Amino acid sequence: MQFKSLVIALAAAVSMSAAWAQAPIVIKFSHVVATDTPKGQAAERFKMMAEKATGGRVKVEVYPNSQLYKDKEEMEALQLGAVQMLAPSLAKFGPLGAKEFEVFDLPYIFPSKQALYNVTEGPIGKGMLQRLESKGIIGLAFWDNGFKVMSANKPMHAPEDFKGLKMRIQSSKVLESQMRALGANPQVLAFSEVYQALQTGVVDGTENPPSNMYTQKMHEVQKHVTMSNHGYLGYAVIVNKKFWDGLPADIRKQLEKAMADATTFEKAIAQRDNDLAMEAIKKTGKTTVYNLTPAEQTAWRTALAPVQKEMEGRIGKDLIGAITKQAK
Ligand code: LMR
Fold this sequence. Notes:
- With 328 residues, this protein is of the alpha/beta class.
- It has helices at residues 2-22, 38-53, 71-80, 113-120, 123-130, 173-181, 194-200, 210-215, 241-245, 249-284, 294-304, 306-315, 317-326; strands at residues 25-30, 58-63, 85-86, 137-147, 149-152, 166-169, 185-188, 205-208, 224-226, 232-240, 288-290.
- A 6-stranded mixed β-sheet has the order 7-6-8-5-9-11. A 5-stranded mixed β-sheet has the order 2-1-3-10-4, with helices on both faces.
- (2S)-2-hydroxybutanedioic acid (LMR) binds at residues 32-33, 89, 145, 170, 191, 208, 212, 233.
- (2S)-2-hydroxybutanedioic acid binds next to loops.
């Protein structure tokens, strides 16, 4: 009898370990924007490619729209291992202690998309991602979301038009300095709270690429948009280092390939998505869209020029210099 129960226990243990061996590796990928945005679509693309390439050994669960966590919490969740993958905007790495990522927020630092790619796809970008390892994070890729527009309930043609406006920003000191340089009062809010804050007047305006504005319906509560393209919004796709290092080598390789595919895909759709979103905003007729004249553009550049100097101490003069040089 004793022998029989030992056999049963052994058999149960064997079948349990077989089940373990077959259980898929789950990657929880949390993000804060809608699925129908460049980031949202690229996350879905990664899921598809990763699950296909690993023959189902990896399951990617994508949680869009802050369903699981808001901006600040998702960073904590990643470090604790409650989720495995995120793609926060580069403006949100300050609280992690990676202040240099805020260099991407500097007004007008990238004269073109190509100038940006020179940085994100070159040694500077690689070095920045590598430095995340000391925080228990691996940086896998940069994703793109283009240049930002300004929105509010009043026209914004000259820098003076921002005087006294409460402007929602992401948690970046550079963005804080940028809004102050325009005479506005910056307020940090999680992305998921922006629509309501605009609707109830907690803040007067904000900045984002059109795809984020449109998919969050911000245009319904913002009467004016200025096509300022004054700053950049991009992402770093990051994973928990312990999780990533613990993956079987062949799986990691497949996931790297899936990420490379998703990154190419993301880069290809980002601009078009934003152009379409802007067209859709115009079509609603709820928001007046304004293009700055060359003289107004100069006035914006002049007003925002001091931000770079002011932020040198935080970001590093050398990094700013290296990026400016690369960006030419
Ligand atoms: C924001 O918080 O304004 C955006 O950066 C959200 C995002 O991830 O695109």
